[in-house]
Each structure stands twice: as structure tokens, then as C-alpha cells.
Amino acid sequence: xxxxxxxxxxxxxLEDLVITNADGAVVxxxxxxxxxxxxxxxxxxxxxxxxxxxxKKMAEIGEEIKARWPIDRIAIRHRVxxxxxxxxxxxxxxxxxxxxxxxxxxxxxxxxxxxxxxVWKKEVWEDGxxxxxxxxx
Amino acid sequence: xxxxxxxxxxxxxLEDLVITNADGAVVxxxxxxxxxxxxxxxxxxxxxxxxxxxxKKMAEIGEEIKARWPIDRIAIRHRVxxxxxxxxxxxxxxxxxxxxxxxxxxxxxxxxxxxxxxVWKKEVWEDGxxxxxxxxx
Amino acid sequence: MMKVKLKLFATYxxxxxxxxxxxxxPEGSTAGGVLARLVADYPALAGLAGATxxxxxxxxxxxxxxxxxxQELALLPPVSGG
Amino acid sequence: MMKVKLKLFATYxxxxxxxxxxxxxPEGSTAGGVLARLVADYPALAGLAGATxxxxxxxxxxxxxxxxxxQELALLPPVSGG
Lengths: 137, 137, 82, 82
Hints:
- The complex is a heterotetramer, with 2 copies of chain A (137 residues) and 2 copies of chain C (82 residues).
- Chain A is of the alpha+beta class and 137 residues long.
- Chain A has helices at 11-18, 51-68, 99-116, and strands at 2-5, 25-32, 36-37, 40-49, 73-79, 81-84, 88-96, 119-125, 128-132.
- In chain A, a hairpin with a 2-residue loop joins β3 and β4.
- Chain A starts with a strand and ends in a 5-residue tail after the last strand.
- The mean pLDDT of chain A is 90.
- Chain C is of the alpha+beta class.
- Chains in contact: A-B, A-D, B-C.
- β2 of chain A pairs antiparallel with β2 of chain B, so a sheet runs across the interface.
């Protein structure tokens, strides 16, 4: 349920993992590679992870969520390697008895992931490239 | 993009409809038929809509969202007819440049839908049935 | 007299046994007046009337909205989409 | 002397040209001390050092964390997942 992978990912696949008969709401988030960054045209992106630690940190986010909300089904998958514009870099799915909790927990998961999960991305443009650090996103 | 249908629906299908190269975040919501309601075991549910008005109201929710957030891709689909436990009754997908907007707009959409879109559901248990009115959900 | 199309949903549809009625009502009739007439014919609906919203030609309307010939009036019990 | 495994990511990996180094360091070395030594060897990394976080055996650690033989130290430039 908490995975770094070099294969294409989709929020839909995670949705199937978290849904149960007891749940009333499923919220998913997909972070998609954008075609422009600060006005420059991005050709592609390269993602790199400290895989063992990233999967451990994602699982910890899951534990935090289970402690804070009445939720026991959450899945997070982050892709690494070369990504084309429009592809999904990170996907999260949360299922919960009520929608408010599902929205809160899903947003919490991506906020925590952006801050603490060791994954880096390099933007490659026509005339250069750069590893992008912490940002508003 | 705003549809009442008697066929099975999935948030994943709507995700594909709203994604564009300009977007950075896609948030989906799926409202799933629960197996229990107030302690009673639900056998199945029956959904009924005032289809023409419901589709108009869902499109209006889309317009409200476009006016409030920098979002131009949103899809809402609501199913009617007989639904089994675990099936999706309503699905919403929103794509936006940034995740905060996508979460806010998706939550806004389901909140508005629950209040103003003319769709009704009947819960059928082993020993009875009832049309369910406005609720916290 | 004029014609209005009355749309019935959920409990209304079940108690009346139809999802749509063509009614002849006096000129100047209101949405609430039509509901009151329906409740007179189907007393089992009385408990629901206070929580009902109205739509005229697929837009929300108040109980005192005056109807015109050929309009579509819908009785909307509390909604519960999703 | 003791052995530590140094994991390098993103800019660190590119500038050093490797994703992993086996280092021999004095007993009592700290995470920050290992980074300082790496920057001495690769001055191009100096600008990044202040924004770097450390992980020891895959858990966040402070710059003054003392390392033990066989541990894995990772240099984490600002993350940007998602």
C-alpha cells in the first residue's frame, strides 16, 4: 500500500486497493507532471527516491492518519524515473466512513509527503535542467 | 461532464476526462454505498433523480467552481437505479494547477451536490425500507 | 383553467403511484396550492409537505410562486444525493 | 576507524558521480562531519550543504548525530516529491 515504483501509476489503481464495504467516501489525489514551470516549457522530469526510507516514511504517514481519523485504508504510490508531461508522479487514495475525514486525511497525506518523504525531481527544459527543492506546490 | 446515468460509474473514468497537460493536481471523490446505516444491515439502495434538473444543477456547480478557483476542468456523474453495497453512487473529479484548489473545489462540489441536486435514495433492509432525507453524510 | 405538469419523486411518486401527472388548475394557482390539493387527495403525504421544496421549470421556486400554463412543477422531498 | 555507507541523491549523486560510497571515518564522527569532508573534496557542493538534511539508518537525524560502525548515512537535499 506504500510503494516507490518505476512503473506508471494511476490513482484509480489505488482506489481499488482501499475500498471496502464499510466505507462511504473515497478521495484520491494525483500529482501530475506539468508542462510548464515558472513560464518555461518542461520537456520531461526525472524523479529519484531514497526508496527504503521513502516507503518507510509513507507508511508512517499512513499510521499518523489512522491515529488521527477513523480511517484504516490508505494507499500511497510514488513513481520514479523519467516522466512525460501529463503522467502521474504521485497517487494517494483514502477511504473513510464520511467524506470530511477522507478529504482531510488525503490532503494531510500529500502535505506530509511533500515535506518529509525523500523524493527529488529534476526538471529538464530545452536549455537546461535543475533539481527542484521544497516549494509551495 | 455533468451526467445522471443508470450505468456503473467510477471516479477513475472522470479523472481521464479532466486531466490536461496544464494541470498539476487531480482530486477525485467517490461516494460509495455503505453496508450499514445506523446499525442496520443495508441490502441494496435505490437512487432516483429529477434528471433534467439534476444535470442542470451539477453544471451550475461546475460554473460556480470555475468562478471561484482557477479551474476549468470538472466532471460530476451520479448514478441512479439499484445499487449494490460497495458500488459508487456519485463521482467527482477536479483538476487544477495546484492541489489546495483541487481539494477545496472537489469538497465544495460534493457539499453543494448533497444539498441542492435533486437525487433521492431509498435504503432497503431485510425488514423495511425508507427514503433517506438530508443528512450529515 | 390551465395545464401544469406535476413531477413526483421518491415518497411522492410511490404514494401517488405515478411519476408524472397532468393537472388542470385555476389561473393564478401557486406551487404550494398545487401541493395542498395533492395532500387533500393523498392524506398520507401530509407529513412530508412541510419539508418539500418546489421547482418550476427545473429551477427552485418558493411555495407562493404563481404558475403559468404549460409549466412543469416538481415536488422535491429532502434530497440525499451521493 | 569505522565504516559508514554514504547514500547520495539528486545533486549530490550527480556531482560526486556515484549514488553510494563506502567511507572509512574516525570513531565519533558525526553526520555533519562527514558532509564537511565531502564538501572539502567536492567544493561545488558547498552551496547545498546548509539546506541538507541527514538520515541515519533511514531515519532523520541532526547534524551532530554521532555515527556508529556499519551505519548508513544519507544526505538529503530539499525534497520535492509529488
